[in-house]
Amino acid sequence: MFKKGSKYTRKDVGWILLPETGRPKGGAWDTGYVTVDDLLIVFMNIGVPGKTHHDFDNDFNEESGLITWFGKPNTHSGQPLFKKLLNRELTAHFFARWDNTDPKFTYLGTGSVVKYDDAAETKSGIKAIKLLLSVDDAEYILPSSKEKQEAKSSFMFERHLEDFLITNWKQTHLGEKYSIYEENGLPVGRQYRTDTGPLDILALSKDGKEFLVVELKRDRASDEVVGQTLRYMGWVKKNLCSAEQTVKGCIVALSSDTKLENALHTLDNINFVRYEVDFRLIEEF
Question: Alpha carbon of 100 to those of 96, 110, 232: distances in Å?
Answer without folding.
Answer: 10, 22, 33
